Amino acid sequence: MLRQIKTTAARSSDTLLGDFLGAAALMVTLVVGLYLPGLI
């Protein structure tokens, strides 16, 4: 299983950074969406 993860990471290394940034943006949106009602 670890070998499959390494192989997949090696194959998609050029899109890995973009995927990470997309996931981080989704998490920021989620956190802001959850805190926004408390700020208003």
| Class of secondary structure makeup | mainly alpha
Q: Which oligomerization state do the chains in this entry correspond to?
A: single chain
How much helicity do the residues have? over 70%
Mean pLDDT: 90
Calculate the terminal CA-CA distance, rounded to whole Å.
Answer: 47 Å
Q: What fraction strand? A: under 5%
Instruction: Report the sheet with the most strands, covering strand number, pairing sense and barrel closure.
Output: none
Features:
0% strand; 2 helices; 92% helix; single chain; mainly alpha; 40 residues
Describe the structure.
The protein is mainly α. The chain is built from 2 helices and no strands. It has helices at 2-11, 13-39. The longest helix has 27 residues, at 13-39.
Topology:
Blueprint: H1 2-11, H2 13-39
Quick structural overview:
The chain is mainly α and 40 residues long. It contains 2 helices and no strands.
